[in-house]
Amino acid sequence: MTGSNYLLEFKDDAVAGGKRKILIDCGLHQAGKFCEESNYEPFAYDPKEVTDVFVTHAHIDHTGLLPKLVRHGFSGTVHSTPPTKDFAELLLRDSEHILGMEAERDGKPVLYEDQDIVALMNLWEGVNYHQSVNLGDPHKESTAKVTFHSAGHILGSASIEVEAEGKKILFSGDLGNEPSPLIGPAEAPTDIDYCLMESTYGDRLHEDLGRRKEILGEIISESLKDGGVLMIPAFALERTQILLLEIQDMLKKHNIPQVPIFLDSPLAIRLTEVYNRHRHYFKEELQQKYTSVESMFNFPGLRLTESTESSKGINRVAPPKIIIAGSGMSQGGRIIHHEKRYLQDAKSDLLIFGYQVSGSLGRRLLDGEKTIKILGETVPVRAKIRAIGAYSAHADQAQLLKWLKPLTKKLKKLFLVQGEIEPMTALASKIKEDFKIQAEIPKPGTSIEL
């Protein structure tokens, strides 16, 4: 379930009415379309009454409605880690472009415009891990406190701990798949009363993480051996950078053949530039191994196709070749043009490299559909569809349970969120079996008093 958005209310005499209202995330709903109908519905609260928004990470399903929030009257402060702020600005501008095209095509009003993003960024402040944000009157004991902890999901991602009215509630955000090639593990503060935990992969285990690079190399080699095109729909943020890092290492070790490799994603190219400003968020060994991000994510044979013309020029390069392009779920972006051209080629391959939400084109391909429609044209699927789950940015069931375990000693109540009903139900059953805890699965729009 996408579109993370939680409203938390607690007593605070420093605000009108004696109750402070804050948000954790304000994300765009995505499924069959980039923008679902529900995004056009009014917020379930008055944006003018919200004083602060705390953002777990930059992905659009956690940030995509923040400009709409500003457009409808929010004028408080947005808090996140510095990388999240920088990434979010680029992702939101890209999202605004896609949303504008969809609105024009469907004859609908725009959700927000560039001026709303500008206004939003002027309200946004950076907060480092373990740095607390105090809310309310600093001279009173009732002051609420919000603290960011590493979530291990993407660079700058966070779990958010809120302490108010003598209670502590933790919003996990998206938890990472460990070990990540780029960043350190997720942190789990133990002194927590209530927790909202993600459940994206609550019903499954990833493949052997120790062999994932080897498996990736095998897939690349097998795909290129047929003389076709290897298409990789990759999320512009983190999945693309990890992929480039792994491919560079395999090329240096001669584990895969040297062929033209295209990064056909202007957004991924711009996001990669942001990484250099936040090198201290990388794993320590990466900071020591690479003196700059350019040397991490660039190598001989890699071609960056930022302009539309250079993107079209990829078609003139004879196979075998590798094309890395967005979007990660094949819901738009340049990858769909390549899929339209090469999915009907039995010599070519499509490699699914990340989570595919139900209803997305990527999910339908992964589920084995043999005929699809792209840009109004019916395309027979003859290419081989491959997938590597071990590179997912999300924790699997075992990792979720490992993260949760230290919290269970004090935890009063657990809520499972951010997942489809099957994985949430499976995870709830496993939690009850392992920890003797009843995990609740709240429905969207549910109000709960703690």
Please provide a written account of the structure:
The structure is a single chain. The mean pLDDT is 92. The protein has 14 helices and 20 strands. The chain has helices at 60-63, 66-71, 82-106, 114-122, 212-225, 239-252, 266-275, 284-289, 293-297, 308-312, 335-342, 361-366, 397-404, 421-435, and strands at residues 5-11, 19-26, 50-54, 77-80, 124-126, 132-135, 144-150, 158-164, 167-171, 194-198, 229-233, 261-264, 302-304, 321-325, 349-352, 371-374, 377-380, 384-387, 413-417, 439-440. By secondary structure, the chain is α/β, with parallel strands linked by helices. Helix 3 (82-106) packs antiparallel against helix 7. Strand 19 (413-417), helix 14 and strand 20 form a beta-alpha-beta unit. The protein folds into 2 domains: 5-204 and 393-440, Ribonuclease Z/Hydroxyacylglutathione hydrolase-like (Metallo-beta-lactamase, Chain A, 4-Layer Sandwich); 209-391, Rossmann fold (3-Layer(aba) Sandwich). Helix content is 30%, strand content 21%. Strands 6-7-8-9-10-19-20 form a 7-stranded mixed β-sheet, covered by helices on one side.
Q: Tell me the strand percentage band.
A: 15-25%
Beta strand count: 20
- Give the assembly state of these chains: single chain
Query: Which stretches are poorly predicted, pLDDT < 50 over at least 5 residues?
Result: none
| Tally of alpha and pi helices | 14
Round the mean pLDDT to the nearest integer and report it: 92
Question: Would you identify the CATH H-level superfamily of the largest domain?
Answer: Ribonuclease Z/Hydroxyacylglutathione hydrolase-like
Q: Strands across the major sheet, in which order?
A: 6-7-8-9-10-19-20
Q: Give the N-terminus to C-terminus distance in angstroms.
A: 23 Å
Taking all Cα atoms into account, the compactness measure Rg is 22 Å
Shape: globular
Please bin the fraction of helical residues.
25-40%
The CATH architecture name of the largest domain reads 4-Layer Sandwich
Class by helix and strand content? alpha/beta
| Largest sheet composition | 7 strands, mixed
Give me the CATH fold name of the largest domain.
Answer: Metallo-beta-lactamase, Chain A
